[in-house]
Amino acid sequence: MGNKLYVGNLPYSFSDSDMQQAFEAFGSVTSAKVIMDRDSGRSKGFGFVEMGSPAEAQAAIEGMNGRDMGGRGLVVNEARPMEPRSGGGGGFGGRRGY
């Protein structure tokens, strides 16, 4: 088990510091980041928390998964590595020219 956790179904009002405070009850929080939409600046409803040790991460999963925050049940589990995105091309359907 690693130290990095995925936290989903966050209230849209949740900030990095809110998440850090919520998870500090289970050990030291190395980092807490709510993912924000680049265009609107609003939370995307998920984020990542890095705990100080795998044991603290496991305790945080057990203590926070399903917990109600702002009327939403949190989803907390071990973060998986990011999968490479398929596709590519930029804007015009991948065609060169108009």
Automatic annotation (TrEMBL):
<dbReference type="GO" id="GO:0003723">
    <property type="term" value="F:RNA binding"/>
</dbReference>
<feature type="domain" description="RRM">
    <location>
        <begin position="3"/>
        <end position="81"/>
    </location>
</feature>
<dbReference type="InterPro" id="IPR000504">
    <property type="entry name" value="RRM_dom"/>
</dbReference>
<feature type="region of interest" description="Disordered">
    <location>
        <begin position="76"/>
        <end position="98"/>
    </location>
</feature>
<keyword id="KW-0694">RNA-binding</keyword>
<protein>
    <submittedName>
        <fullName>RNA-binding protein</fullName>
    </submittedName>
</protein>
<feature type="compositionally biased region" description="Gly residues">
    <location>
        <begin position="86"/>
        <end position="98"/>
    </location>
</feature>
<dbReference type="InterPro" id="IPR035979">
    <property type="entry name" value="RBD_domain_sf"/>
</dbReference>
<dbReference type="InterPro" id="IPR012677">
    <property type="entry name" value="Nucleotide-bd_a/b_plait_sf"/>
</dbReference>
<dbReference type="InterPro" id="IPR052462">
    <property type="entry name" value="SLIRP/GR-RBP-like"/>
</dbReference>
<dbReference type="Pfam" id="PF00076">
    <property type="entry name" value="RRM_1"/>
</dbReference>
<dbReference type="InterPro" id="IPR048289">
    <property type="entry name" value="RRM2_NsCP33-like"/>
</dbReference>
